[in-house]
Amino acid sequence: MTETLNQAALFAALSVHINAHPDLAELASVSNSTLQISGTEGVTAAIAWAHTLGGDSTVTLGAHPHGDVGVKITGTMAGHRVTVFTVEDDRLHELLPPDVGQPYFQRKCTLSLADLETHLDTAAPVES
């Protein structure tokens, strides 16, 4: 029963935060303690939303087999660890570790939210 109440409090907190960011309503979906953000503004929205989380935020980047980079930003809300997840397909490949013989989709790295923001402010978009 207590766990159900804790999950309800977390979901309520997530809902409040989603509603506080008008652009998230159409981009976001919630599953357990993960907020998944889609769309071309996914990383920007995820970073903005991550600033509302408590605790130390960590960012984990991981390559996906189809070529894009998954972005997981973890923090705390309502006493629970919460993950904001989105996908970036243009600007984050160079942050992944160099190829040392492993498949591309096994490449991962962890960095701070500030490092991610700094990179995105200075990274030039890839022209198609």
Describe this structure as you would to a colleague.
A 6-stranded mixed beta sheet has the order 1-2-5-4-3-6. The chain has 3 helices and 6 strands; from the N terminus they run αββαββββα. By secondary structure, it is α+β, with helices and mostly antiparallel strands. The N and C termini lie far apart (52 Å).
Question: How are the elements arranged and paired?
Answer:
Blueprint: H1 2-20, E1 28-31, E2 34-37, H2 42-50, E3 54-63, E4 69-77, E5 80-88, E6 108-112, H3 113-122
Helix count equals: 3
Kindly report how far apart the N and C termini lie: 52 Å
Biggest sheet details: 6 strands, mixed
What share of residues is helical? 25-40%
- C-alpha-based Rg, rounded: 15 Å
Brief summary of the model shown:
By secondary structure, the chain is α+β, with helices and mostly antiparallel strands. It has three helices and six strands; from the N terminus they run αββαββββα. The chain has helices at residues 2-20, 42-50, 113-122; strands spanning 28-31, 34-37, 54-63, 69-77, 80-88, 108-112.
